[in-house]
């Protein structure tokens, strides 16, 4: 009985640990995707090459995002 409880405790610990790693991996993937998207936006819209988007560059990016966004559902 004691060995069974120890085994159950060990399995529970491994399960919680595996879930934590999965959440960390998901967060890392999300951050990497955001960094990639930012780099792509800069490459496409940073016309003056200063490494950041000016007001006009942001407006152009927003216009394109709106154009490419799926149409809103009417209710």
Layout of secondary structure:
Layout lengths: L1 H44 L9 H14 L7
Task: Characterise this structure.
With 75 residues, the chain is an all-alpha fold. It has a domain of 40 residues. The termini are far apart. The chain is elongated. The protein is built from two helices and no strands.
Which properties best describe this structure?
75 residues, mainly alpha, 2 helices, 77% helix, elongated
User: What gross morphology would you assign?
Assistant: elongated
What is the H/E string? HH
β-strand number: 0
Weakly predicted, low-confidence segments: none
Major sheet size, sense and barrel closure: none
Total helices: the number is: 2
Structural class: mainly alpha
- Mean pLDDT, nearest integer? 83
Strand content: under 5%
Helix content estimate: over 70%
How many angstroms separate the termini?
A: 60 Å
Radius of gyration: 23 Å
């Amino acid at each position: 009985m004691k060995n069974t409880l120890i085994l159950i405790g060990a399995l529970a610990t491994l399960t919680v640990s595996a879930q934590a790693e999965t959440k960390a991996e998901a967060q890392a993937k999300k951050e990497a995707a955001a960094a990639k998207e930012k780099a792509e936006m800069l490459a496409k819209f940073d016309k003056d090459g200063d490494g950041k988007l000016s007001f006009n560059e942001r407006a152009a990016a927003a216009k394109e995002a709106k154009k490419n966004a799926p149409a809103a559902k009417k209710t």
